[in-house]
Amino acid sequence: MTFHSAKGREWDCVVVAGAEVGLLPHISAISKEQQQEEVRLAYVALTRASQQLFITWSESRKGRTTGRSSLVAEISDLSPLIDHSEITKRTARISSSGRKVSLEDQIKKWRSDRARMIRQLPNAVLADHELNLIALQKPTSIEDLGKIVGQITAKQIGPDLLSIIARAGVTV
Questions:
Q1: Cα dihedral sign for 67, 68, 73, 75?
Q2: Long-range contact list for 61-64, CB < 8 A, 24+ apart?
Q3: Closest alpha carbon to 154 in 50, 41, 77
Q4: 89 and 69 in one domain?
Q5: The domain spanning residue 18 has which CATH number?
């Protein structure tokens, strides 16, 4: 469904896909009036959800760097209304065989548990390349994590991931 046709409607769950530079606002919106219309339509799309709103974007499209749209970049406090503490506790444990589980494996386990909890695919929680970068760079703050996954996502999942990294014995 388009942003235009969503006007006046409401759903429990809305997914706004492609909220990225060049698409939102659309690159063809050149005049001030066209840009204002794009902002208005984005507002319509982003306010149609009564329960859940999912916003997706790509960091690159067709070989071009895109990234999150400035129209959604300022949205904060999108943290989900679920308790992640149990997932974090289970994820950072030593395996039953007694061998230490790698940080990457701990993050994969957490991602899998969280995906199951929110009924999403694991890559919807955290993309493979992001997971690999987190395990490699071992961020120590929400801000550092935000450089990998974006600030909004970092605020949502950061406490869990930073706890896993800290418990893995990573020192900086």
A1: negative
A2: 61/20, 61/22, 64/22
A3: 77
A4: no
A5: 3.30.160.800
Domain boundary among 73, 103, 132: 73
Read off the tokens for 88: 């974090």
* Total domains in the fold of the chain: 2
pLDDT digits (tens, 9 = 90+) for 36-64: 888 888 888 888 888 888 888 888 888 78
Cα distances from 17 to residues 53, 70, 120, 159, in angstroms, run: 11, 14, 15, 25
Q: Is residue 172 part of a domain?
A: no
pLDDT, one tens digit per residue, over 99-148 is 567 899 999 999 988 888 877 888 888 888 999 999 999 999 999 999 99
Residue 20 pairs in a beta bridge with: 68
Query: Side-chain half-sphere of 44: how many Cα atoms within 13 Å?
Result: 17
- Same domain? For 134 and 162 the reply is yes
Nearest Cα residue to 93 out of 77, 110, 79: 110
Domain assignment present for residue 97? The answer is yes
Helices and strands (DSSP H and E) totals, the chain: 9, 4
Residue 159 lies in a domain: yes
pLDDT at position 29 over 50:
yes
Q: Which domain holds residue 52?
A: 3-73
